[in-house]
Structure formats: structure tokens, C-alpha cells
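Trying the structure run again after the queue cleared.
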Amino acid sequence: MLKDLKEFLLRGNVVDLAVAVIIGAAFGAIVTSLVNDIITPLILNPALSAAGVDKIAELSWNGVAYGSFLSAVINFLVIGTVLFFIVKSAEKAQSLAKKKEEVEEAPAGPTELEVLQEIKALLAEKK
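Done. C-alpha cells:
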């Protein structure tokens, strides 16, 4: 049983998934900080001041606190945008690598030795 557990945990996909989850959580923390510490103060402060609140989490209407939800939506949009550009970049890199492989796999022309042998044969025929 322990052997099966060890095999399962050390399988490549499980380790890759664990790394992806950890990196995703760290990336989420970075985006949350970006929204809370940069975007909200720079862009949303005028709107928050007009609403009479200091923090986005304090936004509410008839008891419905929608400020935290608005912050989560902004986080989602930022994460989605960044992931879009990451995926596009990865696709571009893969297509460039594929083109490079196709160029490398293309049949090469005759070697220098083969060309010289052909010239020698043609010269020998002329004599």
C-alpha cells in the first residue's frame, strides 16, 4: 500500500500539478497585492472617495457588501489577462520551435564532396 502511494505521489503528473498549484497560489497573492496596493489606490480612489469609503471592502448597498466581490472580479480580470498573454507567448514559442524543427529536418543539398565528385566526373567525360 505504501509502495502504491509512493508511486502515485512520485508520478510526473502529480508532481507537475503540485508545482503548478503552488506557483498559482503565489501568483494569486501577487495579483491580489497588485489590485489592493496599486490598482485600487491609483485608479479606484476617486470612485471610492465619491462613494464615501476608504477601502474597497467597505463598499456596500442596502447591506450588501459588494466591495470584496468587485475586488475579486478585478483580480480575476488581471489574472485572466496575464494568463492569456502567457498562453499566447507559449503558443508562439511552440510554433517557432516547430518551424525550426521542420527546417532542420528538410533534406540537405549535396555536400561539397559530392559536388566536387560530379565536377570531376563531368571533366572526365569531356576529355
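The radius of gyration is 30 Å. Worth checking whether this holds up in the mutant runs.
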